[in-house]
Amino acid sequence: MSRIDKVATVFGGTGFLGRQIVADLAARGVRVKVATRVPEHAYSLKPYGQVGQVVPFACDYSDGASVARAIAGSDLVVNCIGILYEKGKSGRFQKIHVDLPALIAKACAENGVGRFVHVSALGCDTGTSRYAKSKLEGEKAVLANYPRAVILRPSVIFGADDDFFNMFAELARYMPALPLIGGGKTKFQPVYVGDVAAAAVQVLTDTHTGKNGPEGKIYQLGGPEVLTFREIYGRLFQFTGRQRCLVTLPYGLAKFEASFLSLLPKPLLTPDQVESLKTDNVVADGALGLEALGIAVHGLDAILPTYLERYREGGRRRVPGPGDKPLRDIR
């Protein structure tokens, strides 16, 4: 194991992306504090490192002093806390995407943190949704308090535990048709969770500074393919073996239906998410990306089959052995 005598605080370390970042940091020998409201949720991350290397740390995200305590003594800080929708109390985008990052950035500056990475969202500078606007405002709050912060803007992140492909694959098990909002013309550039985590860790551990370093830069992270929503459905059907009808929904009608779906305990769709589909989610020409960080990019075809085939009828197909007779693939 490579040893780096560093301590990192990770906010959002129990989440989909955060878990991968914690694992990658631990693999590099970094000691990791997982700042979380419920430390018990981070116990499962301890095996990612040696004894005492990954430590859950209780943190009240609304309390600046608590945030500062979580950061104290750390050389590196990552913030990957984010929410996709607002539920219940209004203003949660403001609190989670703007106020909290500002507190973290302020504490980083006051504690002399060497490198701070803030995970934002691709398209936040062009999107019209409340989600996108709050993400952009959060970036500004971070840079105002810690100008050397590195901003990562990933597109839709996919991986074994994602809430994107898994959700639609699960819906395809029970629904004869799936919605194609706005005709399915919105473009995405899905990026693998392992590549986003690798980018965060690369930025944190990069020894270059100044003009050649990552400080104060924004990286737009996308995979090797740009796909429309309709094409994403096609890839989903390919790897699950389930073909479904696609029903086009105009944005207005989709927002009306989303107003009811947003009332579910875990909303399938919200009006604000419909609004976000009016803007493409792709890396801009000339933007710094994964290649600039030396990250080998993984495509959908290399990753999706590893977890979507469990949605096939009858479950995952058994890989034939050397002595097996060829079987006809019935779909």
Descriptive key words:
331 residues, alpha/beta, Rossmann fold, seven-stranded parallel β-sheet, 35% helix, 16% strand, globular, disordered C terminus
Offer a quick outline of the entry:
The chain has 331 residues and is of the alpha/beta class. It has helices spanning 16-27, 64-71, 92-110, 130-145, 165-174, 193-205, 229-240, 251-261, 271-276, 300-303, 305-308; strands at 7-11, 31-36, 54-58, 76-79, 115-119, 150-154, 157-158, 177-181, 187-188, 191-192, 218-221, 227-228, 245-249.
What is CATH's topology name of the domain at 7-158 and 189-225 and 282-298?
A: Rossmann fold
Give the fraction of residues assigned to helices.
Answer: 25-40%
The separation of the N and C termini measures: 45 Å
Strand tally, please? 13
* Molecular shape: globular
Give the C-level CATH assignment of the domain at 7-158 and 189-225 and 282-298: Alpha Beta
Low-confidence parts, pLDDT < 50 over ≥5 residues?
Answer: 318-331
- The helix/strand order is EHEEHEHEHEEHEEEHEEHEHHHH
For the biggest sheet, the summary is:
7 strands, parallel
Which range does the strand content fall in? 15-25%
Number of helices: 11
If classified by CATH, what would the architecture of the domain at 7-158 and 189-225 and 282-298 be?
3-Layer(aba) Sandwich
What integer is the average pLDDT?
92
Radius of gyration: 21 Å
> CATH H-level name of the domain at 7-158 and 189-225 and 282-298... which superfamily?
NAD(P)-binding Rossmann-like Domain
The main sheet orders its strands as 3-2-1-4-5-6-11
Find the structural class using helix and strand composition. alpha/beta
